[in-house]
Amino acid sequence: MSVNNSLHLAPMLALGDDKQKNEFITPYTTSDKIGCFALSEPGNGSDAGVTFTTASYKGDHYLLNGTKASITNAFEGIDGFSLGKKEDKLDIRGSSTCQLIFEDYIISKENILGQPVYGFKIAMKILDAGRIGIASQALCTLETCPQNVIIETPKLLKIIKTLQKYNA
């Protein structure tokens, strides 16, 4: 939920006009849709200063071209561009992760948050807020670790004894 709340919804709430808020916030707070933030790219990871995805201004819209990699929540509730294969990951499995592939994807200029010349600065501020959310999530996970160890240890010991019995 941190990605949805701090990286997806917060910028729209802070920078969006009333029309954008109704169109892009309401569906993510009243349905099963969940948002994402597409930063990472193949070959350059999450280095926001080195991106290959382009947004070309065409008068009343922008054309977006490029690929974003390892995007959390990319699989659910997103249409209008193609998705890469869903990644099989070891970490948080409650959300999907995959590539987003943009090929002449049209974004109307009415859907741009803030002024385009400030896009990089806006993205960096969004990421700063997102880091707080992710850090909070990590702290909560760490807080529950001792409880989970107490709960899971008897199960683990039983499995170990069974494996030892069969010399596995």
Automatic annotation (TrEMBL):
A cellular-component GO term for this protein: mitochondrion
Record-annotated Acyl-CoA oxidase/dehydrogenase middle domain positions: 36-74
Pfam families xref list: Acyl-CoA_dh_M (PF02770)
Cofactor: FAD
Domain of life where this protein originates: Eukaryota
UniProt key word Flavoprotein: yes
GO molecular function, one term: acyl-CoA dehydrogenase activity
InterPro entries named among the record's database cross-references: Acyl-CoA_Oxase/DH_mid-dom, Acyl-CoA_Oxase/DH_mid-dom_sf, AcylCoA_DH/ox_N_sf, AcylCoA_DH/oxidase_NM_dom_sf
Keywords of this entry: FAD, Flavoprotein
Transmembrane segments: none
GO biological process per UniProt: butyrate catabolic process; fatty acid beta-oxidation using acyl-CoA dehydrogenase
Name of the protein this chain belongs to: Short-chain specific acyl-CoA dehydrogenase, mitochondrial-like
